[in-house]
Amino acid sequence: MLAPNRLGHAPTATSVPAPETAPGLAGGHTAASDPAPNAPPAGAAGWLGIRGIGKRFGSRAVLEGVDLAIEKGEFVTLLGPSGCGKTTLLRILCGIETPSSGRVWLGDRDITDDPPAQRRFGVVFQSYALFPNLSVAQNVAYGLAGMDGGHRRRLVTELLQMVGLAGHADHHPAQLSGGQQQRVALARALAPGPNVLLLDEPLSALDAQVRAGLRVEILRICRQMKVTTVMVTHDQDEALSMADRVVLMHRGRIEQQDAPQRLYSQPRSHFAASFLGGMNLWPGRLRADGWLQVGAARLEPPAGLDPGVRPVHVGIRPEAVRWAPEPRPGAPVADLRLLGRVRWSVFRGSHCDLGLECPALGEEVLLRVLTPGGTQAPLQPGDALRLTLPASALVVIEGA
Amino acid sequence: MNVTEALAPPIGLVRHESRLQALALWAAVLLGVLFIVLPVAALLGRSAFDAQGSFVGLANFETWAASPALFESALRSLRLAALSAMICVAIAYGCAWSLTMTCMPAKGLMRAMLLVPLLAPSLLMAISLIYLFGNQGLLKGWMGGGSIYGEVGIVVGSVLWTLPHALLVLVTSMSTIDARLYEAAETLGAGAWRRFTSVTLPASRYGLAMAWVVVFVLVLTDFGVPKVVGGQVQVLATDIYKQVIGQQNFQMGAVVGVVLLLPALGAFFVERHLRRRQAAALGVRAVPYSPRPQALRDSLALAGCSVVALGLLAVIGVAVFASLAQYWPYQLQPSLRNYRFDDMDGGGWGSYWNSLALATGTAALGAAATFASAYLVDKPVHGRIGREVLSLVSAVPLAVPGLVLGLGYILFFNHPDNPLQGLYGTLAILVLCTVAHFYSVAHLTQLAALRQLDREFEAVSASLGVPFWRTVWRVHLPVCAPTVIDVAGYFFVNAMTTVSAVVFLYGPETTLASVAVLNMDDAGDIAPAAAMAVVIFVTAGAARGGLALLRAAVVRRTQRWRLRETT
Q: How far off is chain A from B20, nearest CA to CA, in Å?
């Protein structure tokens, strides 16, 4: 029913005249035609390359020295709290904002100074920005002015089928639900066959159920179109579940970028550790004998840790903490083994979050236990238990 | 896919789009400076020169202050404007309260009746007062031996024609009061009176102050009412007219103009400050209040509003009736003899057709220009300085009284060195001056409508490779069409009824209906003056009605999307 390759390329092939600029670029992988000293070697910086981007509004720096290389066809999310600069970076990518410093490359071409229209980036905005007076079909066809009528109609029909709105072509945006509007915006952005698709918090205006369904939809469509996608979000679930790669941003800088699983299991900073899900994080130090010391407890370090006495932080995810019931409930928690006692407990449906006191560590320990189907939690406040912190699950973050 | 192929510009002009916007922006600024800023500057400048053209500093102002008649009329102007504003706002507050805080029946009709005076020139009210309370007035006995000519007439006439202006400000302000405050007050056991004093009154205090300022400035700068019922009493507005038209003393006219400009300018800043405070005091998510029926309160509100509304209509009706009578008040059989304007001074029916042309031209040019300037102020991403300058220039007319602007136009465009001197005495300059005179409110209205549109429309069309003007044509204009039509109606009605700016600018070939009213009244032909005022009133009403039909048709055609049909 659908020919993704035609969808992806047709507008470019039919409506765009041959480039009159940039001679010498067509053939190759050299940047010889661009004498700029900071030009990266072509290809080395990825399909979409961001080099040392900085942005200041007055005296306030919103972005500082951001480097990022995105491969063709990759799905990347920019994740971070509000105010971290992720939306500004997206607006710089699509050309609405100009960076104060740094360059943006697409393939072997510097597009930093290109106006938005020349970049051919499709954008889906947080508000969708659908034209209220135009029908769904007219909205989707908005960027296809140069195409002949029959061709355009066919393309719009195919796109609407792809996003599951074939029957809504003549409706106006106000007649659609939030999720449907979102899909129209997606179809509109994809219609001209964009080089890159940019999504600015595309799901944040929707309620939780619709959001979960649309995540899958968007991923399916992006894969089907094989379009390089950059999505901005503040929702860690969204970032982890959709992206090939998550770029975690904090205060205008990239904090860490990794595949979702790796980012979750091996955060490299306080911020990365605490922003993605709950994390026990305790100050400690690495001892001369190679063990970790937290409070009065000695812990076995994870493999591959550089030796050398220094202050570190030791972390572990609450669900990775192992526990066993203490044989003598109610006994005093006095010795220095990892004994703990439940202080509080919060029921969360599929699981239960517990806070434990652990005199050996001298810190509160967060523990997550499954309560499948909402069964009674196996631990209650006051219960004593024995804890194990598996070395493989420990995360060591450098610095005091 | 080849990278460079994908990067080819879809439209060659794309790179020049922001340059084109910048060009349009600065062209708009230039026009604003030419038709708004420079005339006002010419007036300010002229006040510092003598008749021979030598610089005299503040000497003209010293002469002005030393002249007891002129200085006193300034004080009188302030006093009468303050008094009129107080009375007017008190009455309007009662009506606004009835319209927003009660369930009185026939709200729509009441509102429409109370707003009718917007369609009539202020002169019409003054002429009616003469028919009612003048030397041969129907109700002369009510004056108890006093005379309507003078301060009493000015205050009463001013209150009558400014009432709808105050009402609009107050209704807007009171309909934004947060309903949750009333719910909270009620659950805490506050009675009706306490709810009024502890919620309604404090929440509408900025509206009250704004309405007072608006009426104060309208009365201070109005020329029609004091000219017709002022008798021997002079105010600032009539002083300017006398100095310029009567004595050809442009320096002194300019000085009085500056004196008139100062309180208007002060009021402008006070009003702006109040508006900001009100906006800041408003909760982000205020819930609109919907009153519950309460028989006694609602009947009292209806009675009060009816008295005011019927009073206004009766006053207008008197002028209509008198203009249609054979010879008021002795022969009351109907006759159209007062409508044979060609037998009178003032330009005859020709001035009516001129006024119609002026109003049509002003409506078309004004609606187009304010849409363009509002777009250029709000939408382009670049050119922040240009946009701020344009925004500032567009706000200037709000602080400049019509008489001052009109006098500025003479001084600027009639200057022998001005290359645009050819405009002087043409209909074109009347159109330009009237557009400039009423620019600010229209510009702000268009701006508010454009701001309702999604901030990202420009970014979307840019990212889709669609030039901005096509998006303006396909999206902005259709969505804002109802507002554009409203603005055209605003310009039309004001161009029909205004006398203040144009009274200095009309020529023998471009006499105007509203000025004819003034001149016929001046010549003692009160009935024909009333007749012409009625013609203006009917024309303004017809235009408003016609535009309302057009608006409805446009809404049916282009605003289908507003109707939320279920799918």
A: 14
